[in-house]
Amino acid sequence: MQNKQAKYIELGELLLQQILRGHYPLSALLPTEKELCAQHGISRHTAREGLRYIERIGLVERRQGAGTRVIRTNLPEQINQFTQSVQELLEFGQQTRFSIDVCQLLITDKDEMSRLKFSHPREYIYLAGVRSEVHDKKPICYSSIQQFRYHTDLYAKDLDKKTALKQMMHLLSSSNIGRVEQEFTACLLTSDMAQKLNDQAHSAGMRVVRKYFSKQGELVLLAESIYPAHRYRYINVLTPASKKL
Amino acid sequence: MQNKQAKYIELGELLLQQILRGHYPLSALLPTEKELCAQHGISRHTAREGLRYIERIGLVERRQGAGTRVIRTNLPEQINQFTQSVQELLEFGQQTRFSIDVCQLLITDKDEMSRLKFSHPREYIYLAGVRSEVHDKKPICYSSIQQFRYHTDLYAKDLDKKTALKQMMHLLSSSNIGRVEQEFTACLLTSDMAQKLNDQAHSAGMRVVRKYFSKQGELVLLAESIYPAHRYRYINVLTPASKKL
DNA sequence: TAGTGGTCTAGACCACTAT
DNA sequence: TAGTGGTCTAGACCACTAG
Fold it and tell me: Residues in domain HTH gntR-type (chains A, B) (predicted)?
């Protein structure tokens, strides 16, 4: 039994593919809402939702009276990033290698509790190590991960790296994650960190802290990664928050 | 004659304010769509658009069957950033001071043209200097700005700093800007740059490149700013791009 | 199983843009 | 002024979640 997609998503995906494949080049106008209604036998509301779908991605720009215009023909990195940021951790066992330095079962201290707005202490698995490419073993970043207890009984008492990783896969898979918050700051690589990352001491680094929340809104995982500056850039598109704000 | 707001924006703003003011605390459920319809005498479509308004801002999370839940009670920095990123340049003459080192009229070279995807060369005003706080004169960042010729006849031939700044205000004001693209990378501060920023040489910096596009989709301004690491952080919320992608 | 949000239709009028 | 997208109504059925 196939999961049937909503009509507006079908339309959105169609337009998306057409734009990516050059059917509508940069600055081209897409069909009007009325035309899309006629072409696909859908209501105007559905056509609008389809257009909103690609507008949200940032491929087109809509202007009252002027039509829907293509403003880029490739996917902004930003859009992939939700998937990517989740995928990144899932890839720890796949495209990238995660050699774990530290693997411990800990409890949040007072400082962390206030920082994370926890009302009660929570247990977590702490993992830290270097993530590197599989093929040439070049270091990508150093990651410290706090994996919070989710279902109380899932963690074995004897904690080893393999179980911890497996646990993380489980947490992040099956579309558990509802949203991700990220924070970027620049930093210097300490000698220690630089050595681990196979880079020069005192060179620039990007520090990325990501918080993964479940669909129920609970913090399930916190990852801090330090990248050598040349290994990381972040790109973003801002649009006016309609009318006000 | 007041510009009457759309009903869904009225609703969105109302809910927004209620959340900011603590009427709906963290994790609280908002009224259901049906209730909002009844309370405000609006159709369900309008109620949904109102809810979408605050969902887009990132204040609530909606789940089929479960309701609309508050996931944060303050405005994410991200949301202000479109306004902020435009405002930042407008503030050059106001809250912050921009002491201009360089002010020139230039033309894009081949390298820039390919980088910016221009088919023809374009003239621009080049401005560079330190932006600093007005009250304590502490440096905020070093900015280089390329301000592209927009209306051919607007620039006086004798270019001085005052006209250039005035021109920039004009470009960015009156809601000309339709979108902003930004890119973040970490870097080291050169001795020269560090001196200008009143910081230590070889300390970490954040490099932010922002491209400002007009509502017609034309690149009107490009700004590169270098911040001392401790002066800048970027925060972001990612949500799954509905269903697919 | 009751109630929520998600999708969809078929209309209507309005505000804006281009020419 | 013609045609576009923006807002809005009043319905309908479906998919999901929680108790």
Answer: 5-73
